[in-house]
Each structure stands twice: as C-alpha cells, then as structure tokens.
Amino acid sequence: MKKLSIPALALASLTTYDLFQKEHSILRTFPVVGHLRYAVESVGPELRQYIVTDNNTERPFNRDQRRWIYASAKLENNYFGFGTDNVIDGTDGYPIIKTRTFSDLPARPHTENAFLPSAKILGGPRGRRKAFRPTSVANISAMSYGSLSAPAIESLNEGARLAGALHNTGEGGLSSHHRQGGDLVYQIGTGYFGCRTPGGEFSLPALLETIADSPVRTIEIKLSQGAKPGLGGVLPAAKVTEEIARIRGIERGKDCVSPSRHTAFGDVDSLLDFVETIADATGLPVGIKSAVGHLHFWDDLADAMADGSRGVDFITIDGGDGGTGAAPLAFSDHVSHPLFTALPLVQKIFHERGIAENITWIASGRTGLPDRALMAFALGADMVNVAREAMLAIGCIQAQRCHTGRCPTGVATQSTWLMRGVDPATKSGRTANYLTALRRDLLKLSDALAVAHPALATTDDIDVLRADGTFTTLTEAIGYEPGWGIPSERDRSEITRIMYSPV
C-alpha cells in the first residue's frame, strides 16, 4: 500500500476536522470547500472595490474620492474628464456651489504652495501667551500611535512639517515618532496618557514634563469622538506593544479601554476651570473636541462663556458617523449627529450668545475633500481636520481592518512585518502633496465664489437640491441668521489682506 503524500494527508486531516467540529455549520456540511467561503468573505471589502461597486457607491469614501486623494498625494493628474457621473437630478440634499460672475478682488496668481492660513488667530481673543495663526486651514486629525503604526505616524508628522500643517497626537500620548519636525496638537483623553499619575488620574506636572521639549502648539481636550461618542478610546490588545504600553503607562498585551468620561472634571464649570488651569500653566490655546448629541451641554457651555471670564479657545466638532477607531457598529451607525447637522446645531447656540466669533471652529468628519471642506467652511468652520483621508494619502486602501491589527498596508497595525510597507521618506511627501492639493482646490473654489478665503464663504453660497427638482439655499435649510458662520469684520479684513499680500 502506497503511503499517502503530504498534501493528501493534510487534505484528509482537514476533512476529518471539518466533519467533526461543531462551531461552523458550513464546514460540517461542506468540508474543505467551505473554507473558500470564509476566504472570499475575508477579502470582501477589497473585492467590492474593484469588481462590484461603481465610482460613487462605496462608503465611507467612494472610488472617485479615493482616486482624487491618491492622485493628489502622488502628484498625478487629479482632474476628471467627460463630466460628472453623480446622479444630480432627483437627489435629495445634493449641494450646489454657486459661482459669481464678477469680483472686486484682484486676480489671484497661481501658486504651487497653496498658502492658506487660518482666518483667525488661535487663542487671540482670550489673550493666550502663545496664541498664533495656524499656517494651514487643513490639518491632520487625532490618530494615536498605537491605533496607527510607527512609520505611519512618522509619515504624517513629517508630512505636516512639509505642508506647514498641525498634527494631532490623538489621546495615546506623545511618542518619538511624533517628533519629525511637525507642529503638534496634544490631545488629552479620558485615559490621560502621557499626563497621568500611576493611578490614572490627570497630572499637570506630568503634562508639563511631556510637552516641555516638544513642538506642541495647542492642547485639545477630547470629550468624545465621532467613532464612538460616549465611549472611551479602545486599543485592542494586539496593538499594545511594549513601547506603546510604556508611553501610555498601561499593561502590555491587554486591551486598553479608556473611561467613558473624564475624572478631572464633571460639569461645565469644572471643565472651564480645567481649561484655564492648563492654559495658565502652559500659555497655550486650549480647546475641546466632541461629537454632538443632546444640546444641554452646549447651552450650558455657551452660557458659562458669555461673560468672557473663562472659555475654550477652539471647538472641534466631530461627525458621529465613525472614524479610524474600533467601535461597536451601533455607535458608528447611529450615535450622535453627522457633521453637517452637528456643526450648525452648535454654531447657532454660540451665535445666539454673540460669542461664536471669539472661537476658532474646527470641523472633522470626512472634510478632507474640497467640496465637503467648503461646505464646512460655509457652515462656520475656520479649519478642517483630516484623518482617514490622510491615511489614504500614505497608502490605506480602505480595507476596513483598522480594528483587527491586520491592516494590509501597514498603516493601522503594530505588526512588524506589515508596517514595513510604509516608507516615511516617501509617504511623508505624499501627505504634504495631499494637504497642498486640498488647500489649492479650496483656493480655486474661493475664487469661483469671489471670496478671498474659504472661511468667508457663507450658507448663501450653496443651494441644496430636493428630490422633486426644487431647491433651497443652505441658509434656509438650516435656519441661519444673516452674518452667522463667518468670521468677524476685523478677521475678514485681516485675512483678505494676508491672502493678497506677497508671501
């Protein structure tokens, strides 16, 4: 009797295992071949990208949007030919940006630098010692080291330096990978990583020590995030390496789950005391980041800030439709308002108190595409933060494996083998190219609207189509009053002067 070959023996063993295991019905019924179903399912998102979907079907970023980001990052042709393939007629809520025929502004020379600073001085209205005007309206949003790989963080930070943009550390603390020369926004989350006591409480001395020799320009207190509003951050055990555990002050190899809420403050009054304590100790502008649910908090915050004695320097509004973070499906799908609902809801509250102009407003949530960014500016944003779009610029293929630690492109993983695919020397340039292209297209849209800066766009500049073929202005759709959503007259005058002065 001939001996079974090794492949045949392996096949027989697999068949036997499949027939007698009780976890998977398909494998018990269809031994061996049933594994093909799981193999195809495991690469479903990748297959749909190339075989099933059209240019505008896939979410969160469709093929056209990804193509624009990829081409921009690689300095390839990011134009599109033969007209739009979007369904415009009969699409409810489709935005139309309205051009102007004539302009009192001088013609803007074409520039490859796409100089586009913030229309407001961050921390200026509250007189912070280290107030400054951000040199880019498009900046890199909060993505922690741990959630992203070391070379991904290095690529983003060096890219931010090349583009003159800010790079948010995310709640995971400040690592050596964040020190490639890019200016930083230091984020304080509920876990207080990098600024905590051994017991996990907030420590001001630890914060001062962490940022002492770093290029931190401003501090963001994360109240909640769009991926999972109302829950703390989650870093799966597979991503908690020895280095990350040391930076965060946690145990290696275990899930890192931040508390749902802060322990350093518990209401608006103590939050503002916390903000002012940090601002006084550091001299830096201090703001908050939050998704938007119940509006009681925002009413209370605006009321507490109305007299001008205490206040946040900026507010980052995060859309509640998910992000790079690992999150329960119900939270990504249903918890908190999407950005273009959330931003006007909060803006109205602060405009009614007459203090919106004293705050720098930052919009986050798929704002890394020119049309969506302009919509955010028209609704009152002064800057936009980009997260997943920046990941796409450095090689992400939207495989939607961020939560598993098995990102195939090495962007959102701690696997040494997988992260080899990210070369910071190359990817940092692509980050900068993408940010520059985003600013350049925003300048083009500004020129079409005959305004000096996208922050000067208003809700009157956008019409919203209805499914029945009629339309309304964005102003009417969201209920803004005249003058809402744009900077003060002083800021408008100053940014117009800056935009038309020699750089």
From TrEMBL:
Glutamate synthase domain residues are 138-448
Say which domain of life the source belongs to.
Bacteria
- Family annotation (Pfam families): Glu_synthase
Q: Which SUPFAM superfamilies match?
A: FMN-linked oxidoreductases (SSF51395)
Membership in a protein family = Belongs to the glutamate synthase family.
This protein's name: Glutamate synthase
Organism annotation = Gordonia paraffinivorans NBRC 108238
> What lineage does UniProt assign to this protein's organism?
Bacteria, Bacillati, Actinomycetota, Actinomycetes, Mycobacteriales
